[in-house]
Each structure stands twice: as C-alpha cells, then as structure tokens.
Amino acid sequence: MFDNFPLWPVRAAAGAGNVDALYIFLLALSAFMCAAIFTMILVFATKYRQRRGVEAEQIDGSSALEITWSIIPLGIFMVIFLWGAVIYFHERTPPQGASEVYVVAKQWMWKLQHQEGQREINELHVPVGRDVRLIMTSQDVIHSFYVPAFRIKQDVIPGRYTTAWFRATKPGVYHLFCSQYCGTMHSGMIGQVVVMEPAQYQAWLSGGGTTGSLAASGESLFQQLGCPTCHRSDTQGRGPNLVGIFGKPVQLEDGRTVVADENYIRESILSPSAKIVSGFKPIMPVFQGLVGEEQLNALVAYIKSLSPGPSGAEGKPSPAAVGTSSQNPKE
Amino acid sequence: MATVAVTAERENYLNQEYGIRSWLLTTDHKRIALLYLASITFFFFVGGFFALLIRLELLTPAGDLVQADTYNKLFSMHGQVMIFFFLIPSIPAVLGNFLVPLMIGAKDLAFPRINLLSWYLYIIAGVIYVHCILTGGVDTGWTFYTPFSTAFSNTSVIEAGIAIFIAGFSSILTGLNFVVTIHRMRAPGMTWSRLPLFIWAHYATSIIQLLGTPVLAITLLLVVFERAFNLGIFDPNRGGDPLLFQHLFWFYSHPAVYIMILPAMAVESEVVACFTRKRIFGYNFVAMSSIAIAVFGFLVWAHHMFVAGISLYSALIFSILSYLVAVPSAIKVFNWTATMYKGSISFTTPMLYAFGFIGLFTMGGLTGLFLSALGIDVHVHDTYFVIAHFHYIMVGGAVMGYLGGLHFWWPKISGRMYPEGWGRLAALLVFAGFNLTFFPQFILGYMGMPRRYWQYPPEFQVLNVLSTAGSTILAVGYVLPMIYFLWSMRYGKIATDNPWGAAGLEWKTTSPPPTFNFEEGPEVTWEAYNYEEIPAPAEVSVER
Amino acid sequence: MSDSPIAVEQHGPELLHHFADAEQQRDAATLGMWLFLATEIMFFGGMFCAYLIYRFWYYNEFAAGSRSLDIWLGTINTAVLICSSLTVALGVRAAQMGKRKLLVFLLLLTIVFGFAFLGIKGVEWYDKYKEHHIPGNSFNVDDLVRDYPQLHIDPRHEQIYFSLYFAMTGLHALHMIIGVGLFVFLTYYAWKGRYTPKYYTPVEIGGLYWHFVDIVWIYLFPLLYLIDRHR
Questions:
Q1: Largest alpha-carbon pair distance within chain B?
Q2: Best residue in A40, A74, A155, A162 to probe B by mutation, most B CBs within 10 Å?
Q3: Which domains are present in chain C?
Q4: 3-state secondary structure of B461
Q5: Cβ pair A305, A110 in contact under 8 A
Q6: Nearest-CA distance from B184 to chain C in Å?
Q7: pLDDT for A272-331, tens place per residue?
Q8: Which CATH number fits domain A214-321: 3.30.465.10, 1.10.760.10, 1.10.260.40, 2.60.40.10?
C-alpha cells in the first residue's frame, strides 16, 4: 500500500512488526487527537468569533473536566508505556542459543568477526531465520549500530561491551548506519547487512579463506600470551580455572558476587585488579594496551567456549542475570 | 490614516534619556529587555544562517556544498547558538524582563544591577562564541558527548564550552532575579492567586534555571578541564565513564527544554485570554501545571539514553516518568482550547501565533509519546524523527510563542502599532513554512535517516528537498517582522495605553511606560483576567 | 541609574529606589543569597555525583589516593575554616550592635584565615606536584603501588581520584578566593562606617556565602582525606 510513499522501512526481522504496530497505533491516536483539537478550535473560532453586542461568557473552569482529561490521557499513556516496554524487553533479551558476532566500531568503519572465523568490514552476512547476538565495543568514541529494517539500534561504547540481537526474516540487503555522531565521516560509516538463505550462507562461509573459528584463534592467542601458566584446567593454578565459568556467579574476595559475562572477562583481562576472585592473589598482569579489541573478542569467545552450551553459542546468562548480561557490571 | 497629533510626547523609559551610556549602563529592566532583544535577534540570524546552509547541503544526497567537517560544525553551532544564545534567553530575557515587574506592580526587578550584569555576561559569552565560530568553530554536536569532545575533536571545544558556561550564569542570574522579585515585590493586593499565568510560568522557568543550569556549568567545566589539563574523568582508557557525562549533561539539558517552552506557554495564556476576552479556563490547573512541569522535568533525563547502555530497569523507570511529565502539558492544551468556548475571538497577529502554537505544540507533544515508548525509541532515536519532534516544540512552540508575544506587547514596549496586515502574513508564512520544513522529517526519521548526516542514501532525497523548500518560506516569515518592527518604530501608528483591551497591570500604564513603571504604585483589588470589567476596544486596533 | 526623581523619598542612600522600604530590600537580598547558594549546591553536586560513582567503582584507588594526602594539613585547614566561620558570625553580630571597630577587626581576621587556608592548600598542591600525582603526562603512582600493595591499585584508575581531587579542591579554592575578595570590599566599607544596626545586609549575606564555602569544605575533607583511614 505504501510502496510509492513509504512510511516505514521494509520489515526484515522478527519484532519489526511489533514496533510498527505500536507506531501505527500511535499514528492513529495522534491523528485522532489532532483532529479532535483542531476541529474544536475551528468550531470555536468560527462560532465564537467576535461579534458586536455578543460578550464572552466568563467560565472559571470545571474540576470534573480537569480530572477527566488528566486521568484518561494518563491511562492511555500507561497503555503505551506497557506496550513499548514489552517490545523493549524482548529487544534487550536475546534468546538462548543465539549465534554470536563480535563487532568492533572505530572511526569510521565497522569490523565484524563471526564465530566461524570470518571477518568482515562494513558488511554483515547472516542466514535468514537465525538468532544473531552482536557483542560490540568501540576502539575510540561512541558509535551506534543501527539497522532500520530490523528496528534495532544500540550504542557502541569504548571500554565495555554492549549487545543487541536480531533474527532476520527476509533475505535481502539492508542499510547499516552509524547513528551516534562520531566525527568527520560519521555519515560515511555505513554498510549493509546481507541476509541470505541458509544454503547460500553456508556457501559464503566456506568461500572465504578463514583461519579457523574465532574461539580457535582465541585459544591460540591464549597460549601465546602465556595464560595457561596460571589458568590451568585444574585447581592447582595460581589463577582460577576458566572451564565452565561463563555465565555463572563468581565470588570475589571483597565479598561481592558477580556474574561472569563478557564484560567481566574483558575487564579481567584489561584491568585484573578490579575484581579478584576469592581465594586468589592479585598477581595477574595487566593486558590493557597489549591486546587489541579484536584479539580481546577472540579471547572472550575462547573462554566462553570452555563453558557448556548449545553448539555455536556458548554460555547462557543465568536466570538472575537476564537482561543484564549485556551490561557493564558496574551499571 | 491620520495620526493623532501629539503635541508633547510624554516622558517614558525610551525618551527619558538619550545616548549610548544611558543604554549600556542602564538598570531599567525595560531597557535591558531591549538590549537583550537586539542581541538575541543577532544570534537568531547567526543560528538561522547555519540552518540554511545545512538545508542547502541536504538538497542532494552527496556532500557537495561544504566539506564533512564543515557540515559537522554547522549543525553543532546551529544547535548551540539557537539553544544557548537564542531560545533559553529569548522570552524570559526580553518579555520576562520587560513585563514581570509591570505585571506584578513593581518599579523594577529585585536586583536591577544584577539584571544588567546578566546581559553583560550574555554579551561576553556571545563574543567568545563568535570568536570561536570565526576561528574554526566546534564540531562536537550541541551535546558535547565524550570521549569525542574530550579526546578526539580537533576544534575549539574549550572556547565553546567556556562561552556556554558564562551564558549559563546569565541564565541563572535572570532566574534568581525573577524568583526574588515574584516573592518579594508584588504590589499590595497582588496575591499569588491573582498573578497572571505569565508570572506563574516564568516562576516555574526560573526555578529550573536556578537549579538545573549549575549542573550544566560543572559538566562543561569538567569537559574543559579534561581537555585542558588531561584529567581522565571521562576517559575509558583510564577507567572513566563516557556515560557519566551523558547523565550529567542531560540532567540539565532535559529541564532546559522546559526553560524553553514554559515561557512560550506563558505568552499563550495571556494572548488567548485577551483575544477570547475571557479568564483562562482552569486557572489553578494551568498554574499548577507549570510547577508540575518544572518538578517532573527534573526526573526524566535518561530518556535521552534509552539505547546508550543504561540498564533495562533504568529505562523502564525513565520511560514511565516521561509519560507523567506529558500530562500537565496536555492539561494546558485542553484548558486553552476550552477557553475559546463561548469566548469572543478576534484574529489578530498574536492570536494567529497562538493558534499556531496550540496546533504545533500538540503535534510536537504527541510525537513525544512516540519517543517515550521504549520500543519505538530504539528505532527512531538519533534519527530525523527526533529532530522533527524537538523542532515542532522549539520552533513551532517556543519561537511562535516568542513572536506572538513580541507582537502582543509591541505597543507597550515601543508605543507603536506594527502593521497588522503584514503581521498576519508573516504568521501564516511561518506556519506554512514550518510545517513544510519539519513534517517530512518525521517520515525521514522513521524510514531510518540518521541525524547529523552530511551525506545520505539517495532514497531520502525527495523528503529532504521538501524540507529545504519549506525552510526558505520559513526564512521569509522570520525576516518580515524584523523589517516591519523596525519600520513601525518610526512610522507605526501611535499606540494607546491598552490597544487590545487586555487585562493585566502592564496595560494600566502608558505605552511606553515611564521609567518607574507606574505614576502611583498600584493596589490590586481584582482577580486576574477580569475581562468582564474591561470593555472590548471599539475595534481591535489595527493598522491597515 | 537615571536621576529623574519620580517621587522624592526620605530614606538613606542604602535604600534603592525600586524597593518600598528597607525591610523589603533586606528580605529580597537575603532570599537572593539563599537561592544563589542553592545554585552552588547544584554546581558542586555534579562533582560530588561523579565522586560517588567512582569511589564506589574504584574504592582501593580512592583509599590509596586519600592516604597520600597530608591529614594534618587537611585538619589544620578544617580548623582554620571553622574559626573563620566563627569570626564571620561574630562579625555579623558586631554589625548588628553597631560596633564598627570590632566588625572591621573580625572581617580582617576572617580574611587572614582565608589566606591561611589558601596558603596551606597551595602547599598541599605543590606536594602533589612534587610527588607526580597531578593527572596528565607526568602522572606516576609507583610510590602508592609500592606503599599499599594490599590495595593492588590500578594506576590508571588512580588518575580518576586525583582528577576529582584537583577539580573539587580547585573549585573550592576558587570560591574561597572570591570570598576573600568579597570580604576585602566588606572590610573597606565597614571601615568607612557604612554598616549600621539598621543596615548591615551585605555583611549578613557575605557571611552566608562564607559559611557555605566552609560547609563545602566540611564535606570535602572527610570525602577526600579520610577514606579508609581506619585500617
């Protein structure tokens, strides 16, 4: 219906329809309210225009009317709030078993790393119908990952991970925009999401030369950096055993308990003294400045792979942490 | 039309003393209002010029008029100039300064010398900012987000930050003056419930100016310190949090939008009452709504951060609070509309602006409901939908309120009538131009066009062209009043004390008023908006 | 202000034309000063907010940084300011009682205390400079890492503590300087005999400002100097 004068972009992800439904409801509500008020004003302006001999009638007000037109809008607003909140809750809660893509934003490009090892610049290939979770960070300033066709957007922040997720429902090529002003070529930091049929996606996967999965490159980096010296796969190491920790609570030596999510692992590598696991000494060297963002992503992917989970997606946030695994634990 | 011969012009605040010293060293609130009028008009056209360049660039998808860096500076400075050097002072510093003492029956504001200091601070801030513009400008967006502004931008962030810091003090002192004046200097008999709604709204505005602006001041200062002294408070590499900046920034900048709209609502109440010749329907509710907006306005700042990385629970709280703050604004719109029922309505220029205000503010406010809905905001945040939303309120609302107020009180301020025909034409041009400029941007935003984009995908071009076309009409609508207001100061029809037959103490003194406002201090024994006691003018004074 | 006399009013030169009477003028001035202090609370509040958050995140670094401050100098400064508030309060009383010489003496004493505070602050800052604790390129907290191994501090986060230390004490010192300047004016006019039991509002509101600056320090001192000292 709106092909020539579209009011919304194509819907290419699960959930886009829900967003548009609320939008259309709000459009209708706004149209109705505008029509009502404008008509009333028009009628009053005509009927009560200044005429010789006709005086205005002084009316102080009406408490009943005031209360009515406060309560009814408030009620409608609460409906809108709940509707929007439900949509948002789903947007912020990735499903279990989603496959993961690590995103590194920098001025002025997007770098993406698939679990299978593919690396892309400014393009993201995904198969239709698969849940995809994006784990994102920035190398410099704040950016924002925006795909209008999917109705998703998430700011990408230096110093921590933020996440978003989607499930593409329609093959095609869709805009990817940076939507947080980030300097000179902010408007050039665009790309595309290429949604393919599963078979084509497999073909694409095996097409490019890769050096193994992301977790595998993470493992080799783990060895290179000497991590197994302390992080042994038994209880004798000077560092905690990393097998099975992802997504589980960790007891810290100051008494706090935190969940081992992506941000925890990242922080532990870059700034180990921030959270010391109970029973261990603060002797881990600082790796800030020694590993780049993409290498960090590989390490995180590797450590996640040490925890049980459906293949292709490691680590489930524990129930208590639903919706918070994408947060900086400091939030 | 024959001008009534006036043999000896009465002494008033304009002719009592001549010479530049009498203006630059004045402590008369009315003269200071005019000093502000001149200065903010200058900045309005500076900001408007930047807007015109932006719209010209956006005629085509490619970046072909200016370079990317230049474009980034244009939108940053458009925002900063319009917000800090035009909108925030506009109505309070011009109309508020002029009218608050008159409306409450006082001889001046509580602190006339601080009032003058406010203006000088504004001018100093303005000079620094103009210097910043001329030496390369600033490209951080009006929002100065870190770490871009602290560690990556190569432009005059420190200078812009200092300029706005100083302008903030101008705003704080104006607010302080108003609050003390309204508390302590009301004429005998002028109780709180007899105050014009203009005063109530300016009181609420002043509270926000007092309590909110200092937070902006410290935030900008921390950004300046970080850049100048390499502190690390917002630097993620040293453990700083870029989101801390956003929280601190929006803690002021959200209430700031209420600083910009409440005074326009103030004007709206006075104009609607006068040109329907009735007390505003629901006076108590409108007065209390102003206060409610000021209070609730401080509780919703993180609705600018729904996708910034705040927690789900924070987002839920701020979303629900944002819906609460919409209620008092809705109440006001309903009350103004209800005032027209059984009124006696005339269609003067101020009233045309008032009609336009209700329409456009309603539309802008309704789109606020879209943005407060978390699920929708994720899609439209940082797109042209947001730009359209706030321009509907700031331009469709605040600027139209400002222009309507200028027209309404022009006879009082200048002693002259503006030409009514031209006034109406300009009002219609502004309304039409505005809608054509900004309505397409709602669609652009939902279609996915991000804001602050120098170049854009070609499918967005048609709507951008429409928008630019509208902006040229808007520009004409803005230039016309400049011309005819100036013209009227020499050739306009001489105004009587109360050409509109309006209620309010300001209309009980001469046009223009004498320096000390009233020949004798008034004593108030009547309620506000006592239109039943005021005869309508024989014909509403119009200049053909 | 213009000279045109609309009405000749019989009042002293201190009563400004636009006020109905001295009481209104005094009420306005006092309300004005209280409101201004409210804005100052909001101003410092932003920094206290940042402090709150970072102290929660980087407690160990804050503890180490706090211990590197000289607690004796800080305590002396606190005592100095409290004494100065006493002299201010006594000064207001002197003005109320019309004791010009006493008032001038107390105002001068307040200024002396103010300078003492600023001097000690200068010494503290200079110490920080020598110890390379000023954030920036020459920032170095190897000494703290060495002295407090049990805190296992991260030097980068330590910069945040010191950034806040300098921002907060710096802005406080700036307010002290403004306060001292204000009091110089007050002293001059007091000496000229301008303040009488009928009109001493400037002394009163100047005093309010000084008390406020003092109170800010009362908060700053434990927050910056006394973190983790119990261990």
A1: 75
A2: A155
A3: 36-225 (1.20.120.80)
A4: helix
A5: no
A6: 6
A7: 888 889 988 888 888 888 899 989 999 999 999 998 864 334 433 333 333 333 444 443
A8: 1.10.760.10
